[in-house]
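ARCHIVE CARD
Drawer: 12
Card no.: 0347
Subject: one protein chain, sequence and derived structure
Cross-reference: see card 0346
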Amino acid sequence: MPRLLSALPFWISLVLLPLAAIGAVHGGWTVVLLPLYGWIGITLLDAFVGHNTANPDTQTPDRDLFWYRLITLMWFPMEAAAIYGCIWWVTHHDTLAIWERIVLFFGLGVISGSIGITYAHELLHQKNRLERWLGDLLLALVLYSHFRTEHLLVHHRYVGTPRDAVTARYNEGFHRFFPRVLREGPASAWRAERQMLARANRATWHRSNPFWRYGLLQAVALLAAWLVGGWAGLGLFLWQAFVAIWQLELVNYVEHYGLTREHLGEGRYEPVGPHHSWNADHAASNWMLINLQRHSDHHCRPDRRFPLLQTYGAEKAPQLPLGFPAMTALAMIPPLWRRRMNPRVRAWRRAFYPGINDWSDYNRGRLPMPRGAS
C-alpha cells in the first residue's frame, strides 16, 4: 500500500482520458479541456505544489517499482481506445462541428505526444522485450516510429554535437528548429541503422532492419483509422499524429536548447555530463511526464527507470525557470523565449566553460562531426 500511494501521483495522466470522452460527446467549450489541463492546469499545479528535490535510492529493485511501471505498461491500450474511440464517435454521430473536431483531436495529439511518446521513451530504454514492443506500438500511433532509432542510436550518443539534430542551437527559434528536425531526423535514423547493419555484414534491406517493423506498425495504425472512420477518420488520425510530433519536438527543443559539448579537436567531444541537459524539479509536471524533466540524470544513466531518476542543483546542471508545459508554450513565441532563456545559456557558458571565448561555431553548428558519425 505505501508503494501504491507513492506511485499514484504519477498516474495523473489518467485524468486526460475522461476529458477526451467529455469533449467527444458534448463538444462546445469542453473540447478545450485537454489542452487546458495539459498546459495551464499542470502549470498552476506546479505553482501550488512546488518543487521536489528529493532523490530516491537508485538501488531500488524493479519488484519495488511495480506500481510506478504499471501506468506505462497499461497506457497503450488506453491511448489507442481514446484515439480510435473518438474517431468512431465523431464520424458516426453528427454532433461536433468541424472546428470542434479539429480542437478535440488537437487535444488528443497533446495526449499522444506529451504522454504517449514520453511513456514510449521510458519503455524503449528498457531491456524487457514487452516494454520495447509497447514503446513501438505507442510510436506507431503517432507515425513517428523512427524516433526509437534516432533517440537510442543518435541522440544519446551525440547529444550536444552537430550530429544530433534535436540539440537546438543557441538563438535558433522553434519555428526554424521544427522543420529542420522533421527533415533531418528520419534520414539520420536511417543512416544509423544502415551503419549498424553494415557492421554486422548485413544488407541494408535485411529483415533485421527495424524500419520494416516501423512501416508495418504505422500502416496498421493508418488502416485502423480508415476502417473505424473512413477518410474523415484517417484525416483526424493524421492531424492528432502531427500535433503529437509537434509536441514531442517542442519538448526536445526545450531539453537541450543552447547546450553543447566542448569540442576537444579532431572530431573529439567531451563526455556527456549532467550540465548538457536542462533540469527541472517542479513536482506536478514531473508527475505528469514521469520525471522526464530530470533529464540531466537521464542522459547520464539512460537505463535508469523514471522513479529512480535524480535531480541536480544549479551547481551541476542548468535549471529551467518553469516546468515543461509552460516552457513549451513559451518556446512557441521566440522573442519571449530568447528573452527568458538566452541569459541562462550565457550564464551556463560562463559557469561551465570559462575558457571558451568564441562560441560562433557552436552557435551555427559548424564544428566537425564527431568521430565515427555518419
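Annotation on reverse: The chain has one domain: 2-364. Residues 2-364 form one domain.
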